[in-house]
Amino acid sequence: MIRKEVANLMYYSPILLFRWLNLALSSTYFIYLFFITDHSMLGWQFRYLTIWALTANCFSSALMLNAFPKVFTDSKNEIITSIIILNAAVVFLYWRLHFIDPKLINGDNARIWYLDYYLHLVGPVMQWIDGALIYGAFKKPLKSFKYIIILFASYTLWIELIVQPYNSIPEGTVTSGLPYPFLNNLNLIDRLEFYSKNMFFVVCVFFVGITATWVKKQTLNNK
Fold first, then answer.
1. Nearest Cα to 86, choosing from 3, 136, 142, 148?
2. What does 47-67 look like in DSSP terms, one character per residue?
3. Closest by alpha carbon to 127, among 73, 165, 90?
4. How is 143-206 classified by DSSP, letter by letter?
5. How far apart are CA 58 and CA 45, in angstroms?
6. For 62-84, what is each residue's pLDDT tens digit?
């Protein structure tokens, strides 16, 4: 009996340590951003989708450690799934635009390399490992899809209806105030097209996750 308990402890300890590391890193960067953000801008750092993902990662990491009441744990799979998809969108959008021209997303601001790599690569990968590989997300697709739609619709409405009207920078050729410089070079119709294409990518990643989960389940059942 004792040997079995020791074996269980050895098995779960690396996962527990990984989750604490995940929480420590995401929380540290979350707090750090309050000190380097331009507080004269309405929305502060939360103007950016990346920071929505970072905030969600803090929440997800704590949720994995059972730090929240039952009202959240009842929807744990849906929450984790939507956060995995959010991180996928952040990574795809950031690096796609970065390789075209870093100024599309950073403007003339100097990059902080360790912050960039954590927010747009290391942090999301850690969430994918914990959420998809260890925990096993994508088990409640219909409810998860609802969370995903609400999440991305909320961000779009946030930047279009609140952030843009009350900020004057960055400035573009068409408008100003939207958090990413390239968005200010697009009219409303072009922006809506951009948002729609990104939503299509999100849906594709979501269905890849569902398919991979189903294949994994069938494989395990056939063993």
1. 148
2. GSHHHHHHHHHHHHHHHHTT-
3. 90
4. HHHHHHHHHHHHHHHIIIIIITTT---SB-SS-B--SSGGGGGS-HHHHHHHHHHHHHHHHHHH
5. 15
6. 999 887 766 566 788 999 999 99
Buried b (16+ CB within 10 A) or exposed e, 3-29: eeeeeeeeeeeeeeebbeebbebbeeb
First to last CA, the chain: 27
| Residue-wise pLDDT tens digits, 144-159 | 999 999 999 999 999 9
- Pair of tokens at residue 116: 């960039």
State the sign of the Cα–Cα–Cα–Cα dihedral 126, 130, 136, 139: negative
Structure tokens, 202: 């999100």
Q: How far apart are CA 120 and CA 127, in angstroms?
A: 12
Domain around 193: 2-221
Cβ atoms 52, 83 nearer than 8 A:
no
Number of structural domains the chain divides into = 1
pTM, two decimal places:
0.88
Give dist(CA 201, CA 206) in Å, integer: 9
